[in-house]
Known about the structure:
single chain; Rossmann fold; two-stranded antiparallel ribbon; globular; ABC_transporter-like_CS
Amino acid sequence: MDQELCGATRSQLVQARRQIGYIFQAYNLLNSLTAQENVEMTLELHPQIPWRDRQQKAQQMLETVGLRERTTYYLDSLSGGQKQRVAIARALVANPKIILADEPTAALDKKSGRDVVELMQRLAQEQGCTILLVTHDNRILDIADRIIEMEDGYLIQKD
């Protein structure tokens, strides 16, 4: 993705966005949509994918993250770990080149957080995707291939 985005046209920004998946600390899912509809939304950036294929891809990705029985559930019926799995499915469904994950375990207990990060790692490896994960959760650092520590916006340590 060797492209400068500062000053990019709208079309160039959309092209770049198609190659990036996002996982947010607060999920950033839409409560008025089902799990499947939240995942399908990402595919709207890919108009070349027919509507029926979008539905199928979203359903398959939700099954992959362990939510086969929850595809038609609205968010208020899902646990925090399940919501994060929907967010992971949404981020990965379009096979992005990179995933930007901001504190993906912050709202989760130790086991759920570990499960979510291991799932992200496995799926990203299967898709050949890079994950850039920002976290304060030291319990998941052993999963990282590379750790860069920052404090107050400055690089402190790099391994």
